[in-house]
Specification:
There is one protein chain. The chain is an alpha/beta fold. It has 2 domains: 6-62 and 360-391, Urease, subunit C, domain 1 (Roll), CATH 2.30.40; 63-353, Metal-dependent hydrolases (TIM Barrel), CATH 3.20.20. The chain has helices spanning 42-47, 83-92, 110-125, 162-168, 185-194, 208-217, 239-245, 262-271, 323-332, 338-345, 347-353, and strands at residues 6-15, 21-29, 32-37, 51-55, 59-63, 65-70, 72-73, 76-77, 98-106, 133-140, 173-178, 198-201, 221-222, 250-254, 277-280, 294-297, 300-305, 308-311, 369-373, 379-384, 387-391. Strands 1, 2, 3, 4, 5, 19, 20 and 21 form an 8-stranded mixed β-sheet that branches. A hairpin with a 5-residue loop joins strand 1 (6-15) and strand 2. The protein is globular and about 65 Å long. Mean pLDDT is 94; it is low at 394-404.
């Protein structure tokens, strides 16, 4: 059977790059968005015999979700796996509407980090066209504060070292999280920025002055705002204050219901320009696993308990949720409408990473798209480069993460 020359998604509620929505139809051709029209284009239906028409009535059409801070999921630890394991995970992510991801390697012994980087770089180089696309590597550590290490193994945290930093870099490195108050942070931020690598400040005891200086040097983001950093204090401001005050900085907000209370997310929405908000999951290998699941992450035993990923000390070890749930949560909590939540997990992330062809429903952009049931926000169909790679078989409703 000849494959359709064109795909028409008709009468859907389109989530646009500015966070608004409108009814419309989208024509896909050769893996890209050919045109966007208020009504299905009659000329296409009249002049082409081989058109695959998908009814988007009562559905949202969004760009494919981008996991910016992603440590793994479904039992796969990106720090401790092999090429086949990562490829299997990437093959599973489209069912969650995730079409792109930045792959995170966390603090570990230097040889272990190098091994993980080698595996992730190989996966990126040999990406399958029907899988979630790996956009690059995020190094979260090892150059972080020993005071705010979170679930990272404290013994493997290291001071910034020029030679070690160079060794850890790969041509596939897209982002590094570091603490800007550390000695030699100035050198690291300048060097990384010159190489086009995004520097995100996090796991940090920085004062607001140190954070502003890091921003002046080129840091452009704050990793999981509020988590693993000097707490907010009205007389001793730190990274949180700098992040909320400085519109140059993007901020990552974890929307899983465990890392940040919705009322605090509401505060961020009031303080930051909407184009600077990045919705992230900080998904751990426990993400999308059932309650009670046990696994290893960061050299520690982690358990899924009450929709949280907890280590033996009861500390959050990443998230048990994917960014898909974070999008739903913002809507269910009444913080944003759906199109705005989508913007935080797609267009804004693409802008932060300077990705020019994904993250937007826009003519000429790659057709990485997701159809959502407008009532339940269940994923209906996921497209990668215009090809349906996942289609839902059941109409199960999905609930937001609980707040505790």
């Amino acid at each position: 059977m000849t494959a359709p020359a064109l795909t028409l998604i008709s009468n859907a509620r389109l989530c646009l790059p500015n966070g608004t929505e409108r009814q419309g139809s989208v024509l896909l051709e050769n893996g890209v968005i050919h045109s966007i029209t208020p009504e299905p284009p009659a000329s296409v239906l009249l002049n082409h015999d081989n058109v695959d028409i998908i009814d988007g009535t009562e559905k949202y059409l969004s760009p494919g979700l981008i996991e910016l801070h992603f440590n793994g999921a479904l039992g796969c630890d990106l720090n401790r796996t092999n090429i086949a394991g990562v490829q299997k995970l990437l093959s599973q992510l489209p069912q969650y509407g995730i079409t792109s991801a930045v792959l995170t390697a966390i603090t570990a012994p230097l040889t272990d980090m190098l091994s993980a980087i080698h595996v992730l770089a190989a996966v990126i180089h040999h990406r399958s066209p029907e899988h979630c696309e790996p956009l690059g590597i995020h190094l979260e550590g090892p150059f972080i504060s020993p005071h705010f290490y979170g679930a990272h193994p404290k013994d493997d945290i290291r001071p910034i070292n020029r030679e070690e930093l160079e060794v850890l870099l790969s041509p596939k490195t897209r982002m590094i999280t570091l603490a800007p108050e550390l000695p030699l942070a100035e050198h690291a931020i300048r060097m990384l920025t010159e190489k086009g690598i995004r520097v995100s400040m996090g796991h940090s005891n920085a004062t607001s002055q140190e954070a502003r200086y890091g921003t002046d040097l080129g840091a452009s983001c704050v990793t999981h705002l509020f988590n693993a950093m000097r707490p907010f204090h009205h007389r001793e401001p730190g990274l949180i204050t700098a992040a909320l005050n400085d519109d140059r900085l993007f901020v990552q907000m974890i929307g899983d219901g465990a890392h940040i209370h919705p009322d605090v997310l509401r505060l961020v929405l009031k303080c930051k320009p909407l184009e600077k908000i990045l919705l992230t999951s900080d998904a751990s290998p426990a993400a999308a696993l059932p309650e009670g699941a046990h696994l290893q992450f960061g050299g520690q035993e982690v358990t899924v308990s009450h929709q949280k990923a907890l280590n033996v000390d009861g500390v959050l070890a990443g998230s048990s949720q994917l960014v898909t749930t974070c999008v739903r949560n913002l809507v269910h909590w009444g913080l944003t409408d759906f199109a705005t939540a989508i913007r935080f997990a797609t267009t804004n992330v693409a802008n932060f990473l300077d990705e020019k062809e994904i993250g937007r429903i826009q003519e000429g952009h790659r057709a990485n798209l997701v159809l959502w049931d407008a009532k339940t926000l269940a994923i209906d169909t996921t497209f990668i480069d215009g090809k349906p790679v996942y289609q839902r078989s059941s109409q199960a409703s999905l609930s937001p993460a609980s707040i505790t």
